[in-house]
Amino acid sequence: MDNRDAGLITIHDLPAALGLLTRLPVPVNTDRAMARGAAAAWAYPLVGLVVGVICAASVALLLAAGLPSGIVAALVLAVSVILTGAMHEDGLADSADGLWGGWDRTRRLAIMKDSHIGVYGVIALALTLMIRWLVLLAVVATGSYWPVLIGLGVVSRTGMVVLMATLPNARADGLSQHVGRPAAATAWLAVALGAVIGLICIGVGPILAAVGATLLCGMVARSKIGGQTGDILGATQQITEIAVLLVIVAVMG
Fold first, then answer.
1. Residues 176-229 pLDDT 10s
2. How many Å apart are CA 155 and CA 157, to the nearest integer?
3. pLDDT (0 to 100) of residue 10
4. Measured over all CA atoms, what is the biggest interatomic distance in the chain, rounded to whole angstroms?
5. What is the pLDDT of residues 147-178, one digit of tens each?
6. Full 3-state SS string of 117-135
7. Of 52, 140, 156, 194, which one has the greatest count of Cβ atoms within 10 A?
8. pTM
9. Which of 101, 94, 133 is nearest to 117 (CA)?
């Protein structure tokens, strides 16, 4: 695994992770962040916490403005996409096109690298956005959006670190290869953060759903392309987020 800077934690890791996974105007020491690489991946769950807090605060403000739950859910979904620069949605679309549009590993990776979006990608985005809006609507309507959105942001990004640590890079270039692979201690720290915050916010059932979704994404990626890429990690975040939301809504009844 690529450990790069040997320290497990530094105060620069959270800004580096925020700079990588969001479009927030966070000052980042680029040289230090590049030297750390995947060693900063322990902070990915904390990025999810920040995104979750911003999204929950947006819900509160929009509801206070008198907007109906359906519009609030749609706007908060837009806030989430804007915060991350649609990075994870792009990964989902590219993964759908490549994994199911190619007939062998080489062709699948080539399709995933192509900036154009295909039918599989369009369908994946349309379906997942619709599902996310519907389940967010249910969450907003119950008034329990603060713990749900925070827990959701945290656990859906924990799985990304797990796949980074456990699957090899599927290609010799790209974002995931550039960042590197986290050491076991880094991955376990991310898992611990995700588990603790997730248990406090959303409970055991949604966390088990996140584990199952992450395992499924990892198995498909290994089978189809022999490892993970940045697109696979983004798709994993999206699929995990949906799995967690579905379980939460099902429990709410």
1. 677 788 999 999 999 999 999 999 999 999 999 999 999 999 999 999 999 999
2. 5
3. 85
4. 52
5. 999 999 999 999 999 999 999 999 877 666 77
6. CCHHHHHHHHHHHHHHHHH
7. 156
8. 0.93
9. 94
β-bridge partners, 169: 228
Evaluate whether 176 touches 229 at the Cβ level (below 8 Å): yes
Residue found by looking up tokens 């099902």 in the block = 250
Centre a 10 Å sphere on the Cβ of residue 25 and count the other Cβ atoms it contains.
Answer: 8
Question: What whole-number distance in Å separates Cα of residue 223 and Cα of residue 197?
Answer: 31
pLDDT, the chain, mean: 93
Both tokens of 44, joined, read: 């990915």
Q: Which residue has the tokens 């349309």?
A: 126
Average pLDDT over residues 22-40: 82
> In which residue are the tokens 């979006």 written?
117
The torsion angles phi and psi of 169, rounded to 5 degrees, stand at -70, 135
Which residue is listed with tokens 């389940």? 135
Secondary structure of residue 226 in the 3-state scheme: coil
Per residue in 61-99, is it b (16+ CB within 10 Å) or e — as a string? ebeeeeeebeebbbebbebbeebbebbbbbbbbbbbbbb
* DSSP state for residue 228 in the 8-state scheme: B
Structure tokens at 67: 């907007």
* Residues 70, 137 contacting (CB under 8 angstroms): yes
